[in-house]
Design a protein that fits this description.
Blueprint: H1 3-12, H2 14-35, H3 43-51, H4 54-61, H5 66-69, H6 78-93, H7 95-103, H8 105-136, H9 145-172, H10 177-188, H11 190-199, H12 206-231, E1 233-243, E2 249-259, H13 266-284, H14 291-305, H15 307-329, H16 332-341, E3 344-345, H17 353-388, H18 397-425
Antiparallel strand pairs: 1-2, 1-3
Helix pairs in contact: 2-9, 2-10, 4-13, 6-7, 6-8, 7-8, 8-9, 9-10, 10-18, 12-17, 12-18, 13-14, 13-15, 15-17, 16-17
């Protein structure tokens, strides 16, 4: 199904057309929230601070620009993503939550509700920390206690509204609502980057032109690689013993798909949470009365501002978290057990322990490739900026990965809707 036929089908099918219109309307509302700044804030001063602070630039990705704009949606859907990750980890370590997730749809709804509730205090705490830090760094000043409380209330309410809009998109529209909101936020920053780049161009500057050409070539190559890896799947053949007509049994073929990048963008989110933490906390203690604490804080801040140290740490964290998260969501022992219960087996591999060991080896090899890929994607902005010497255009590998993943998934869902409705009409 090509692009033109997909587009024609969207206009022909009323229900699908309605879903897409709902998505567009809700996305516009979300962007309005992300664009309205909280009163009494110097937006230009905050933007300059964020441009010179790598840690906050990373966080700004997941707020859809709300953090840089210091808008009503200050923290974006970041607190909800954090709460979701926390509960994914808790499901692994708390047997009761694992039972709730497995037993029924009601159990999963209960966990989703707990995630929403946890988002409120997390949003409040993250907003408190962010505003306090910006105030301490004198990025924002002359705010009263009343103004401070209002900012906390606005930002927490903004997060909850964006979360609600995201869930509405998922239920009434197409695709994952929260992912779409984040993606649109990332894309919204591109026009301003292009405008800044155009303003910095000096007539006849050959080095600048070569830098732009190099940037575009790298961007296209990285985009192709991201699509290739994101779509990469290892299909393990599975045979099931089934009763066949006329008596006896026969083998029915199938396969078990394992993605190269099974962990998605989650390891990068984990890594961002950890790598941002030390320099942010250090900034709180730069003006401490104790000389040792103040000097330690300055040392940590300067250490993380070092591009080489920052890049190596970021890569190592992403690499490690890729293995960690993959084996949380993909458990070879459970898959082997389920296959055995269902009468399935991998040709040439004995059911049970041998199947588990085989799956473990396959997943390890695929995860190694996925971990290296995600690590490179994470440190890509640092490399590209040094190669092209252009700071106004930021080729964020994480941003590209999110955009590609969300776009591909949304296209798959649209095509699935078209196929199902075409089948119903026929």
């Amino acid at each position: 199904m090509n692009f033109l036929s997909t587009l024609k089908s969207i206009f022909k099918l009323k229900d699908l057309r309605k879903r897409i219109i709902i998505v567009l309307i809700l996305v516009v509302i979300a962007r309005i929230f992300a664009a309205i700044p909280i009163p009494g804030i110097d937006k230009e001063q905050i933007a300059n601070y964020f441009n010179n602070n790598e840690a906050f630039s990373l966080l700004n990705i997941f707020t859809g620009g709300g953090l840089e704009n210091f808008s009503l949606a200050l923290m974006g859907v970041g607190p909800y993503i954090t709460a979701s990750i926390i509960f994914q980890l808790l499901v692994v370590v708390i047997p009761r939550l694992e039972e709730m997730q497995k037993e029924s749809e009601a159990g999963r709804k209960k966990i989703n509700q707990l995630t929403r509730i946890a988002t409120v205090p997390l949003s409040f705490l993250q907003s408190f920390g962010t505003i306090t830090l910006l105030k301490q760094q004198q990025v924002i000043s002359n705010i009263t206690t009343y103004d401070f409380i209002l900012m906390l209330v606005f930002s927490t309410a903004g997060t909850m509204i964006l979360m609600w809009l995201g869930e509405l998109i998922s239920e009434q529209g197409i695709g994952n609502g929260l992912s779409i909101i984040i993606t649109i936020g990332i894309l919204s920053a591109i026009p301003s980057q292009i405008a800044q780049t155009a303003q910095s161009y000096i007539s006849g500057d050959l080095k600048f032109i070569l830098g732009i050409i190099g940037f575009l070539i790298i961007a296209v190559l990285i985009l192709v690689v991201i699509i290739y890896i994101s779509e990469g799947v290892r299909k393990i053949p599975i045979s099931y013993t089934r009763h066949i007509r006329g008596g006896g049994f026969g083998n029915v073929g199938n396969h078990l798909p394992i993605k190269v990048n099974a962990a998605g963008v989650i390891p990068i989110i984990f890594a961002i949470s950890l790598i941002v933490f030390p320099p942010v906390i250090a900034q709180f203690f730069e003006n401490a009365k104790s000389a040792f604490i103040a000097d330690s804080a300055v040392f940590i801040k300067n250490l993380f501002e070092n591009q080489i140290f920052y890049g190596v740490m970021y890569f190592v964290l992403v690499f490690g978290f890729t293995f960690f998260y993959t084996f949380i969501i993909f458990k070879p022992d459970q898959i082997a057990e389920n296959l055995q219960k269902q009468g399935g087996f991998i040709p040439g591999i004995r059911p049970g322990k041998e199947t588990e060991d085989y799956l473990y080896i396959v997943i390890n090899r695929l995860t190694l490739a996925g971990a290296i890929f995600l690590g490179i994607i994470a440190v890509l902005p640092i490399v590209v900026q040094n190669v092209t010497d252009i700071s106004t255009l930021k080729l964020g590998g994480t941003s590209l990965l999110i955009i590609v993943s969300v776009t591909l998934e949304t296209i798959r869902q649209i095509r699935a809707q078209i196929i199902s409705r075409t089948y119903e009409l026929s």
